[in-house]
C-alpha cells in the first residue's frame, strides 16, 4: 500500500542540535549564566544548541563578584588556595558533574565560563585517561570562555600532557585578566578555534567575524 508507506515515512530530520552542559563561573549560578548567554548570543547560534545549565555542587562560601548585579543564590564547583595550585572537593565536583550528565544526558560536550571553563577544558584529557566521566559518552566538543589550566600536577599532568584532540572553541578577551593563561590552554588543544573579543573576563557578544567562525564551527 503506497499511501501507507508514505504516511509512515519519518518527517524530514531537522538539523540535530549540539547538546552542551553549561558550567557557570565561580560563585554565580546556572540561572546567571543562562541569562548572560541568552541575552548576548544571537538566535542564529542559540537555535543550533541545546544548552542545559547546572548549578555547582557547593553553595558559595564567600562573597560573590556578581553581588548587586545578579541575585543569589550563588554556587561554586570546588574550592582553591590563593595561588590556584591546590583544590578541595575536586572528586566530589567531578562525581556531581558525571551524575548530572547521566541523569540529563546524553551530552555532546561542555560549555564553560571562568571556573566552569577551567573544568570543561580539563575534562576531555581526564576522561581519556579514565580519571573522570567514565560512565558517560566521550566529550565530543568543548566551548571555553575565559579559561585557564589547572596548576596542581595531579590534575594538570593527566589533563594536558598529551595533545587534546577534542574539537574546541576558545574565547579570549583582550582585557581578560586570565588571557595569558587562556592562550597557554589553547596550546594543549589540536586545531583549536580562537574567537577574540575586546572585553574582559565575561561572556562576550559576537562581532561579525566571531559570529561567522562560530557558525561554521557548529
From TrEMBL:
Gene3D superfamilies reported for this sequence: alpha/beta hydrolase (3.40.50.1820)
Pfam families cross-referenced by the UniProt entry: FSH1
Residue ranges of every copy of the Serine hydrolase domain listed in the record: 16-207
Name of the protein: Serine hydrolase domain-containing protein
Amino acid at each position: 500500500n503506497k499511501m501507507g508507506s508514505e504516511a509512515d515515512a519519518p518527517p524530514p530530520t531537522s538539523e540535530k542540535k549540539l547538546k552542551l552542559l553549561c558550567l557557570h563561573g565561580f560563585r554565580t549560578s546556572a540561572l546567571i549564566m543562562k541569562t548572560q548567554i541568552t541575552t548576548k548570543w544571537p538566535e542564529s547560534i542559540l537555535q543550533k544548541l541545546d544548552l542545559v545549565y547546572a548549578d555547582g555542587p557547593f553553595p558559595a562560601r564567600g562573597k560573590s563578584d556578581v553581588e548587586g548585579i545578579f541575585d543569589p543564590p550563588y554556587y561554586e564547583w570546588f574550592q582553591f588556595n590563593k595561588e590556584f595550585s591546590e583544590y578541595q572537593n575536586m572528586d566530589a565536583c567531578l562525581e556531581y558533574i558525571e551524575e548530572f550528565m547521566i541523569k540529563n544526558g546524553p551530552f555532546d560536550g561542555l560549555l564553560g565560563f571562568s571556573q566552569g571553563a577551567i573544568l570543561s577544558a580539563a575534562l576531555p584529557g581526564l576522561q581519556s585517561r579514565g580519571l573522570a566521566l567514565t560512565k558517560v559518552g566521550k566529550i565530543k566538543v568543548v566551548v571555553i570562555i575565559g579559561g585557564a589550566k589547572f596548576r596542581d600536577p595531579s590534575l594538570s599532568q593527566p589533563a594536558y600532557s598529551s595533545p587534546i584532540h577534542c574539537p574546541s572553541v576558545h574565547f579570549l578577551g583582550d582585557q581578560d585578566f586570565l588571557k595569558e593563561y587562556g592562550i597557554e590552554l589553547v596550546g594543549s588543544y589540536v586545531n583549536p578555534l580562537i574567537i577574540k573579543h575586546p572585553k574582559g573576563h565575561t561572556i562576550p557578544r559576537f562581532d561579525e567575524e566571531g559570529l561567522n567562525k562560530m557558525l561554521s564551527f557548529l
